[in-house]
Design a protein that fits this description.
alpha+beta, seven-stranded mixed sheet, 5 helices, Ras association domain family member 1, RA_dom, RASSF1-6, SARAH_dom
């Protein structure tokens, strides 16, 4: 039997017992303001801090969704994702917001809620995405979260240390392929396609050079140029 344990998916819910155990461990190490709460339906609520990189940020401080019906405490919708957004600092279009959300709130919902709340409306505005920032071998590493990934679960699995993991909302104009957002079977299928294309490319190159070698041998057999 394979002893390797696959890490929990950040797009699926944890079993209730596992979630309860991880939340207890997280809360033990985290300040009270960052504690997570397990809900009766097996989901959990909590906070993440997101650094915003906008050219300009709305300087007013008000609860997102004011005057609109809320999606409930930590609801999965975009309004619920941004119910409690608190401005911590602002300089050169950058600020940090604290977001109260549910474990069922997706990265796409968080980014859409933050953009709608703090970015002025513009049909030509660039697409924004939520990134997770980690420290690896003393160097920062950014990875775009897949749309279906759940930031609060990412936070729970990483632990409460903001130096180990933080979130960043910024423009995502590169349209790069986010391989981490695909499942293992999908990645294996991509790998098989790449291997097939590689074999075909190698075959064409070998045929090309084999043809050149034949021409050179024919020229040598004929004595070459006078």
């Amino acid at each position: 039997q394979n002893g390797n344990v696959e890490p929990p998916s950040t797009k699926a819910e944890l079993p209730r017992e596992e979630a309860e155990e991880k939340i207890s461990s997280f809360n033990h190490a985290a300040p009270r303001s960052a504690h997570m709460t397990l809900q009766p339906d097996g989901s959990f609520t909590g906070f993440i801090e997101v650094q915003l990189k906008f050219r300009s940020v709305d300087g007013s401080e008000r609860e997102a969704g004011a005057g609109r019906e809320s999606g409930g405490d930590g609801g999965g919708g975009a309004t619920g994702a941004a119910r409690k957004l608190k401005r911590r600092s602002a300089r050169s279009g950058e600020s940090t917001k604290q977001v109260h959300l549910s474990s069922r709130t997706s990265a796409l919902e968080v980014s859409e809620a933050l953009v709608a709340r703090f970015r002025s409306g513009n049909s030509l505005q660039p697409r924004f995405a939520l990134f997770k920032c980690t420290q690896r071998d003393g160097q920062g590493c950014h990875r775009k979260l897949g749309d279906a990934e759940r930031p609060l679960l990412v936070r729970l699995l990483a632990g409460p240390d903001p130096n180990a993991l933080s979130f960043l909302l910024q423009e995502n104009e590169t349209r790069e392929v986010i391989w981490e957002a695909f499942s293992i079977p999908e990645l294996k299928n991509f790998l098989r396609i790449l291997e097939r294309e590689e074999r075909e490319h190698v075959r064409r190159v070998e045929e090309k050079f084999s043809r050149y070698r034949g021409l050179l041998r024919d020229a040598m057999a004929g004595g070459g140029a006078p």
